[in-house]
Design a protein that fits this description.
mainly alpha, 3 helical TM bundles of succinate and fumarate reductases
Length: about 130
């Protein structure tokens, strides 16, 4: 005989769409669901890279498959889902990021312009080096 009593009444939450009742959870599930389109688009790009490695005929066949109406509709839907995912991701990030060890007001338009300028210089150097 066991010295532990079995749990007589264990609560189990039903998964019948409880998240649809709260707008916060609905937006969360929509953001997470939009990530599926992001991963499907990544698979399409990887398939293109694979076909490129197999030769010109395979790559041209992959490009021709992207011109079908189904592929065009997929790209339009994926663009909308990825745009929604990106916008909501940047809305969530400041809420989850750790505190900065300096005043966050330092990161203003000037800091962003400096980062963009440095990125443009690095990109220009890379383009010049690969000519």
């Amino acid at each position: 005989m066991s010295r532990f009593k079995p749990a007589a009444h264990t609560y189990t939450r039903t998964m019948t769409g409880w998240w649809r009742k709260n707008p916060y959870f609905t937006r969360y599930m929509a953001r997470e669901g939009s990530a599926v389109f992001l991963s499907m688009y990544a698979l399409v790009v990887l398939a293109g890279l694979n076909s490129l490695s197999r030769g010109e005929a395979s790559y041209n066949a992959w490009r021709a498959s992207l011109a079908t109406p189904l592929a065009i509709v997929f790209h339009i839907v994926a663009l909308a889902a990825i745009t929604y995912h990106s916008i909501t991701w940047f809305q969530v990030m400041p809420k989850t990021a750790p505190r900065l060890p300096f005043n966050a007001k330092i990161l203003t338009a000037g800091g962003l312009a400096a980062a963009a300028g440095c990125s443009a210089i690095i990109l220009g150097a890379l383009l010049w080096a690969t000519r």
